[in-house]
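Notes from the pairing session

We agreed to fold both candidates in a single pass and log them together. This is the raw record for the first candidate, unedited. Please don't reformat it; downstream parsing expects exactly this layout.

Candidate A
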Amino acid sequence: MTTDTTASEHTLFLVPWHIGNRLDITVHAARVARSMRVFLTEEPELTRRQFENDLGIDCAGKEFHLIPEKEDPKFLKLVLAKMSKEDAVLICSGGIPCFIDPGAWVVKRLRERDIPIRALAGASILSTMLSLSAMDWTGTHNRGTFII
């Protein structure tokens, strides 16, 4: 366990978003989108527009932070600071957080610090388990190795 930060009592939620049609999300994912304030996402402005336009969510007071594709200590520091005060959400547009989309490195670093991570069910239990694995599925060495 790394000791360069205070332990967090807060949770990172891995929320699968849509696959295809922007409205193909679970009721639980929409509920989390409405109730949470801090979002880590691959496309912050697109996510904000989808919240507002497709789901009618008021985004005043919500924060949307761009997840760097490669590990970034400054971004990790930001996430740890946010999570010292409240829960956060890692949301992706591909339906499976950390599988094709960036974020696996964030999950890995938070798990090393024993920060709770909770994955909402996605398209299948396999996608949920892949989200929790913290394996970097986005690296160039992994591209093209899966048939979906």
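Candidate B (folded immediately after A)
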Amino acid sequence: LGFDPARLPGRGERVAREERHGITVETVRIRASPAYEIPALVLAPAGRRGRLPAIVALHCHGGQYAWGARKLVSSPDDPPALVAYRERLYGGVPVAEALARRGFVVVAVDALYFGERRLRPETVSADAVPADGREAFRSLASLAEGTAERNTAENRVAGAMEAVMAKTLLAAGATWPGVITWDDRRAVDYLATRPDVDPARIGCVGLSGGGLRAAQLAAADPRIRAACVAAWMTELGPLLPSHARRHTWMAYTPGLRAALDLPDAAALVAPGALLVQQCARDTLFPMEGMRGAVEKLERIYAKAGIPERFRGTFHDVPHSFPPAMQQEAFAWLERWL
């Protein structure tokens, strides 16, 4: 993953707290390295005593950069574009809140390039923007802040600048998936410091880019005891010829292919439990790759003598994480945590 800065203790600074319909929502800053902090939202069920299981809830990519953790946590001032986005991909459910109401302590962080850590177009010069983002960049001068049109234009600029950001990280000796996985591991560090969390019962769940993050976090951190990867699992062989262009730079770890396929890497969570949820109408992945990944994971878990700790399911939906998939994922996490 190519990113290993000095690691600090997992403490986080709480900057705000609110009570909300049976849960608490805290705004926290987690110190990730001597150089930067990670903005996070932490949710917990109100009135619960003792140490509880915990979840790292991992937001998706989805071409929507303005929001990170806020995709999974609602707010009364959510803009219409965010409400519509959450409805389309999550069935309108703020997933982190749903998990907290089921008894989990939940942390959701803004991944690099999203939410508070998103690209700020005003800091970019016009000549730095790739050709496919220049028209959108020029339009920003006439678009009001907070409008759907402004959000669309900013997303186009950020999408065009993704490659520039990824190249810059590579030139600095790091990788985008490396930074993301490092930060998600620091979220686990933080959970382990909380008096209301049982550090032996930590899991993770994510959709799409969040599913990729869940697989990488579960592979990289042995403290993850159960994981759910929703709508992001395939073998690389079938993916690369026809579908590589559809995916973000965060999906590609240099050198991984020489040693491991994506399902091999995800299986590093074993003996922890792993649920892979595939969307049968997902156009981002070839069906051959999706089925091959599930079959490979079944073989790995069977060879390890723990076949019950893996499940691969297919749902007749497009790329999304609707309530029926959420309920399956939540029940899986409850079973193994």
